[in-house]
Amino acid sequence: MSIDEEYLNNVLNLFFKFINILFEWVRDKFYVLFNIIFFKFVLMKKFLETNISLELLTSLFSQAPVGLAILMGETHIIANANTQVLEYWGKGDHVIGMPVLEALPEIADQEFPAFLKEVFETGKTIKGNKVKALLEKDGVLITYYFDFIYAAVRADQEIVGVSVVAINVTDQVLSEQKLQENELRFKGLTEISDYSTAIYRGEDLVIEFANDQMLKSWGKSRSVIGQTLEKAIPELQGQPFIQILQDIFRTGEPYFAKEDKVDLVVDGELQTFYYSFSYRPIRDVNGEIYAILNVAVNVTELVNERLKAQNSVKEYRALAEAMPQIVWTTDKDNQIQYFNENMLKFLNVAKNDITNFDFSKIIHPDDFATLKRVWNKSALDKVFFELEFRFYDAVNDRYMWFLNRATPVLDDDGNIKQWIGTSTNIDEFKTLAAQKDTFLGIASHELKTPLTSLKLYAQVLERMLRKTGDEKNAEFAKKMDVQIIKLTSLIGDLLDVTKINAGKIYLNEVSFDFEKLVLETVEEQQMSTVFEIEIHSQKVGMVFADRDRVSQVITNFISNAIKYSPNTDKIIVRVERVEENVQFSVQDFGIGMPEDKKDKVFEQYYRVSGDEQTTFPGLGLGLFISSQIVERSHGKIWVNSILGKGSTFCFTLPAVE
Amino acid sequence: MNSKKIVIVDDDVAILDSLGTMLDFEGFEVNTFMRGSEIFRLIETENKPNLILLDMWLCGEDGRDICKQLKSNERTKNIPVIIMSASRGLENTALQSGANAFIAKPFEIDDVVNKLHQLIA
Questions:
Q1: DSSP result, A203-269
Q2: pLDDT digit string, tens, across residues A281-340
Q3: Which helix (DSSP H) or strand (DSSP E) does residue A272 occupy?
Q4: Which terminus of chain B has a lower count of CB atoms within 10 Å, N or C?
Q5: Looking at CA atoms only, how far is residue A470 from chain B in angstroms?
């Protein structure tokens, strides 16, 4: 064997030894590259074993994509160096044959000479991983990072040199450094962020980082950092999160959750929280997922508030269902949104049939226009309304009276967003009320017949007694007649109310002198009272109304003023012209009434109540009848009053020119 | 003086009695009937009355129909008719049936007497 052949064999063996060492090292990081090299060399070996030439090997050696060198002897003379390693060194092939420290004096005080020495002396193989090297290139020291293997070169069991395999990993290291820097900067930012942030590294989900917010969310201390998520937060077992996180390593797909429920032990108690959060994969320079970034916002309060609102909606629904009334809601355009069970039953419709429900189909045609008017007006003023109208009763095939109330629900801008309504069946009440009115009508009519003859007998009696000169008894008969007049008036009131309720009050309208009527009526009233009726009047012109009915109102005002003025003896009557109207008022100095009762006095059957007032006689119909007469005569009626000081009742009627 | 003949038709005996007594007392010659149909018999057999006081709601009869009949009969159309009713609101329909006047029950006897004198004079 010539020297060349021996040398060649030596180099060849070394070469394949490198390859084997390289194999393990490269496997993880440069799998593809490794495969190519390995494949190439296996082929080469086969080829070389059969038909090898120095030329071929030298070419292979020089073309290898890794730095290769053989340093011989104690002074590490560069026996061989391929193109790649020369490029790393920044030197030409003139360095071959030079001791390495002579060729690369800048490494003298770096760690490489020590490594070489160790390998040469002990035969140990040294692997370096991302080792920093400062190499001079064009007179400038440049920082490189290398992965390298130093292995002993033996000849006949004796160490004769050191083989060098090196790969420049400078770019990778710099990227990693940059990534690390970014990561640090990111952690710094997230540490002070309001969002809960954490990073889980590896499929084991080791908590690499968690900011204070996240630790607070977990109810854990900083000691969990470095632990796996599963160990740090054992209550996550049985919840889906760990699986989701692990899946991301496989799929690479980020995961987003909105208001997701999570049970965590906080303050020693398993509690339910709601989080909106994201899991995003973090990739290294090679695009491999090495960690997951978790950013989360605690929305528990928000969700709880909403759940509470939903529950209260449920409660109100339950309340609506439990009510004996009909309950409904519509949107702002009066489209039905909801009917309670009672309504569905009444209408004989299914719950699903209520969208686009046509109200006009179930409301009595005579009532529909009124409802529309009232509802529109209410919508305009954004106020509650109340109206009686008839619904079609599908079960009994007839219309039924309901008392309907609806109230608008306003949004934050004050616009109507919904109507909530109730309808109470008042059909029976209405029937009874109508029966009552009919009964009162008949009763008062029937009462009038005996009253007529009673009155006649009293008058006959009075006249006969006067004829015989029995003036004393004649006076008694006259008094009987006065009482009959009072009885007649009471019955008249009852009859009037039934007429008003039935909408049948009849006004015999004529033109008459208003002041003259007042003066006549006052004169009549003055005859039957000890009160002084003080009159302040003037000519105010004519009115067009029912003269008897207007007289009835004036009489009612005066008799009320007297009735509710115990301990006084004067009332004041005024007749005035106020713009287009004539105005009549009666002022008394009696008991008066509180502010909140002022409108009530004009209601049907309303009587001034209270301990003292209960002693005042009357049916409580007079002012109701008066208000109806005035309103139907296109006038206005009202009262000004101070409790304990007295009242002034007023009404106006339009004057005719 | 010749007393004027008044016919009162009402289904209430007390009204017939009290009003009859009163008008008698006031110097009228009074005939009372409980049924409207009886007026027609009277008119055929006796002298015509000077005035008829007619209740509106007779038992089973409508005073306004009787009034219309009287007013459509040549022999009786000139006899003044006063319709009486406890229903004040029916004054218009009473006058539409041809009645010369309307009196709401209960009434002041003086008002009735004044009306009688006005219509008979």
A1: TTTEEEEE-HHHHHHHT--GGGTTSBHHHH-GGGTTSSHHHHHHHHHHH---EEEEEEEEEEEETTE
A2: 988 878 889 999 998 988 888 888 888 888 888 888 788 778 888 888 888 888 888 888
A3: strand A269-283
A4: N
A5: 17
Kindly give, in sequence order, each residue whose CB lies less than 8 Å from that of residue A632, ignoring residues fewer than 6 positions away. Answer: A505, A507
- Token readout for A367 is 């009532």
Flag whether residue A478 sits within 8 Å of chain B, measured between CB atoms.
no
Domain hosting B110: range is: 5-119
Q: Are B19 and A456 a contacting pair at CB < 8 A?
A: yes
- Say whether residue B59 is in contact with chain A using an 8 A CB cutoff: no
Q: What is the pLDDT of residues B29-60, one digit of tens each?
A: 999 998 888 888 887 776 788 999 999 888 78
Q: What angle do CA A556, A559, A560 make, to 5 degrees?
A: 80
Residue A1 binned pLDDT confidence (cut-offs 50, 70, 90): very low
The strand ranges marked E within chain B are: 5-9, 29-33, 51-55, 57-58, 61-62, 81-85, 101-104
Give yes or no for residue A13 having a pLDDT over 70.
no
Distance (Å) from the C-alpha of residue A443 to the closest C-alpha of chain B?
A: 11
Residue A654 has pLDDT above 50, yes or no: yes
The verdict on a CB contact (< 8 Å) between B15 and A452 is: yes
* Upper half-sphere CA count for residue B32 (Cβ side, 13 Å): 18
Q: Out of A445, A460, A508, name the one closest to residue B18 (CB).
A: A460
Q: Is A162 helix (H, G, I), strand (E, B) or coil?
A: strand
> In the predicted model, is pLDDT for residue A369 greater than 70?
yes
More confident site: A237 or A183: A237
Region of poorest pLDDT, from A45-59, A439-453, B2-16: A45-59
Q: Which pLDDT value is given to residue A66?
A: 82
Contact call for residues A583 and A576 (beta carbons, < 8 A): yes
Q: Tell me the CATH number at B84.
A: 3.40.50.2300
What is the DSSP secondary structure assignment for residue A588, as one 8-state letter? -
Q: For residue A617, what are the contacts with CB-CB under 8 A and spacing of at least 6? A: A563
SS3 content of chain B, % helix, strand, coil (to 5): 45, 25, 35
**What distances in angstroms separate CA A471 from CA A175, A307, A466, B49, B113, one per listed residue?**
135, 90, 5, 35, 22
Distance CA B69, CA A60 (A): 146
Distance CA A573, CA A497 (A): 26
Cβ neighbours for B24, distance < 8 A, ≥ 6 positions apart: B30
Q: Kindly calculate the radius of gyration of chain B based on its CA atoms and give it in whole angstroms.
A: 13
Chain A residues whose CB is inside 8 A of the B107 CB are 452, 455
- The CA distance from A173 to A285, in Å, is 10
Q: Which pLDDT band, with edges at 50, 70 and 90, does B72 fall under? A: very high
Structure tokens at A237: 């077992």
Query: A282 and A245 in contact (C-beta within 8 Å)?
Result: no
Q: Which of B87, B88, B105 is closest, CB to CB, to A452?
A: B105
Phi-psi group of A567: left, alpha or beta (phi > 0 → left; psi -120 to 50 → alpha; rest → beta) = left
Q: Is the pLDDT of residue A32 over 50?
A: no
The answer to ipTM > 0.90 is no
- The whole-chain average pLDDT of chain A stands at 84
Measure A456 CA to nearest chain B CA, in Å. Answer: 6
- Residue A45 binned pLDDT confidence (cut-offs 50, 70, 90): low
Query: Total domain count for chain B?
Result: 1
First-last CA distance in chain B: 14
Torsion of CA B56, B62, B66, B72, to 10 degrees: 110
pLDDT at site B39: 85
Position with higher pLDDT, B86 vs A611: B86
Give the Cα separation of B67 and B27 in Å (integer): 25
Q: What is the pTM of this model?
A: 0.45
